[in-house]
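Sequence in, structure out.
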Amino acid sequence: MYFLIIVLIIICIALGLFVLIQNPKGGGLATGGAGSNMFGVQRTGDVLEKGTWILLTLIVVLTLSITTIAKSGGSSASSGSGSKLQEQLDKTPTPSPIGGAMQAPSNAAPANAAPADSAKK
């Protein structure tokens, strides 16, 4: 799974470079769009545009596959830490449905109980 994440980061960087390299299409505030068709620049723009779409598709596919692997518990390291996290969540007290006070865990002593040593005195 870590390999897929590293590949995804590399593809994201490449997509950013592809977008920055491209010339504007001549719409909006850009001027001089007629000059971009001279000397084969149009063909380079087509290659960069196709590359951008391919990289975007790869990002979507990799993101969905990483999400699927993570939800199914693909790596033993992530599933092991998930069980420890679940144990911690089970130990924490939960709010009471009435009044919002915290419930004590079932194995804890009541708050008003006196220690055994003070009862002997």
